[in-house]
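Regression test case RT-17, inverse folding.

Input:
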């Protein structure tokens, strides 16, 4: 009888784990996930238009990770920022699914949203699972909250690390070498969790083994906002509309990393028609925003005027509703968000 080598056994184990993981993820998509080709209509956005002065250590990737605006949208020519220059940041995102209380993670956006009493209370850029190791969609609850966690490295990840020639360990203790950072928010099934990182520039990518990764400051705030049994929804919405109470309309068009399908312009028309917005949209601008896939919310209503960087969305004082304070991605400062009407779901 032929004996398999240890390396072959590890490779076989990795394949089996990936197949099982893919089957679980596929089952979650099939059982409860909304059709990604349908476009939801929401009524809140996070982020702002702002001006940012580039520091000595900034790169396109670090700025993208900090603010949650794709590097290729920030620097479409592939250039790197020059220290001392002031650049325009637009990190507005349509708040994904609207729930009364809990956390929503939208994989194509690479964004995490916290809702309180039906309104957006926090939003941060994240890293989600790679296309070959996807974050499983579905409904979860927070099962555990741990500070300074030990990372027990799964066998499949150890096998992958060995194949890549990386140092291997069965566990990584708390400290600067721990890729989980200082916070772990474990979910109740799927073997995944929400955690920090020891490498902040890795945020805002499709680059994890299924877990949801946040920058250290962001996960610290999230950790203090959530509790055990908190609802967590992981969704897959590549395109979303937002109709704000002041008449502004936005569309956000994101990539389709797991190849689940993207809505076309007919789907955008259908969603706008169902929400009574079709006649209020500049369709040339909407079509352009849909196909360019910039990964941020673009304004598409007919009343749009030129928006200048450095002026926050929340600085528009003619908004008919009040404002709420919330934590966003701009570092240590709190920003204002225009509050809006209850979400409309287009199914």
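Golden output:
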């Amino acid at each position: 009888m032929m004996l398999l080598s240890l390396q072959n056994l590890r490779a076989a184990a990795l394949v089996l784990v990936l197949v099982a993981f893919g089957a679980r993820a596929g089952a979650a998509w099939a059982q409860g996930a909304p059709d990604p080709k349908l476009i939801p209509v929401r009524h809140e956005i996070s982020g702002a238009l702002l001006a940012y002065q580039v520091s000595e250590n900034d790169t396109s990737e670090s700025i993208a990770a900090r603010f949650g605006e794709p590097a290729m949208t920030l620097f479409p020519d592939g250039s790197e920022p020059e220290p001392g220059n002031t650049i325009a940041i637009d990190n507005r995102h349509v708040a994904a699914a609207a729930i009364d209380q809990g956390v929503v993670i939208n994989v194509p956006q690479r964004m995490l949203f916290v809702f309180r009493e039906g309104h957006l209370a926090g939003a941060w850029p994240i890293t989600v699972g790679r296309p070959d190791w996807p974050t499983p969609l579905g409904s979860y609850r927070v099962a555990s909250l741990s500070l300074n966690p030990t990372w027990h490295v799964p066998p499949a990840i150890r096998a992958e690390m060995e194949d890549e020639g990386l140092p291997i360990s069965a566990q990584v203790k708390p400290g600067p070498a721990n890729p989980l950072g200082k916070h772990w928010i474990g979910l109740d099934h799927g073997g995944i969790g929400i955690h920090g990182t020891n490498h902040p520039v890795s945020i805002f990518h499709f680059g994890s083994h299924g877990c949801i990764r946040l920058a250290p400051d962001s996960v610290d705030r999230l950790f203090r906002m959530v509790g055990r049994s908190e609802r967590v929804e992981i969704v897959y919405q590549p395109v979303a509309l937002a109709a704000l109470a002041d008449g502004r309309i936005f569309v956000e068009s994101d990539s389709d990393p797991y190849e689940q399908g993207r809505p076309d312009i007919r789907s955008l028309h259908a969603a706008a028609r169902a929400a009574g917005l079709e006649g209020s949209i500049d369709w040339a601008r909407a079509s352009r925003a849909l196909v360019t896939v910039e990964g941020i919310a673009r304004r598409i209503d007919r009343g749009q005027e030129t928006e200048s960087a450095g002026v926050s969305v929340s600085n528009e004082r003619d908004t008919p509703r009040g404002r709420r304070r919330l934590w966003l991605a701009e570092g240590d400062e709190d920003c204002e968000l225009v509050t809006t009407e209850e979400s409309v779901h287009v199914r």
